[in-house]
Amino acid sequence: MYPAAELDALARRKAVLRARISLDRLRVTALATEVAKPIDWIDRAIVQWKRISPFAKLAAVPLGLLLQRGLVSGKKTSLASRALRLMPLVLSAVRMFKAQKSAAASRA
């Protein structure tokens, strides 16, 4: 049906094509690992965020606001006065968490 020379040429082309495909697969794998690095960083950040207690997260909000005001505002105010202004917010949040904790304990 086919002469031997054509079969040999087809076999060589097939071997070259297979080698090219395997090389392309290696390149795609390398590129996929590079693309997945930011996703891995985000996953690790989410895991670390979940490990932080809710009270620490709650404390970070007023501290972040204080730092933002300290860096952004042009007028000079003391840290104590800023903390006193945010104290009602912190206390209401602490009361809210205590109420949730006691409600969860009474359900259990």
Biggest β-sheet strands, sense, barrel: none
Distance separating the two termini = 81 Å
Into how many domains do the coordinates divide? 2
Q: What percent of residues adopt helix (DSSP H or I)?
A: over 70%
- Helix segment tally: 3
Beta-strand fraction estimate:
under 5%
Report the average pLDDT across residues.
Answer: 83
Weakly predicted, low-confidence segments: none
What does the radius of gyration come to?
Answer: 31 Å
The number of strands is 0
Helical/strand content category: mainly alpha
Q: Element order, helices and strands?
A: HHH
Shape: elongated
Explain what you see:
- With 108 residues, the chain is mostly helical.
- It has 2 domains: 1-51; 53-108.
- The protein has 3 helices and no strands.
- The protein has helices spanning 4-51, 54-72, 79-107.
- Helix 2 (54-72) packs antiparallel against helix 3.
- The chain starts with a helix and ends with a helix.
- The mean pLDDT is 83.
Note the topology:
Layout: H1 4-51, H2 54-72, H3 79-107
Helix pairs in contact: 2-3
Features:
89% helix; 0% strand; 108 residues; 3 helices; elongated; 2 domains; mainly alpha; single chain
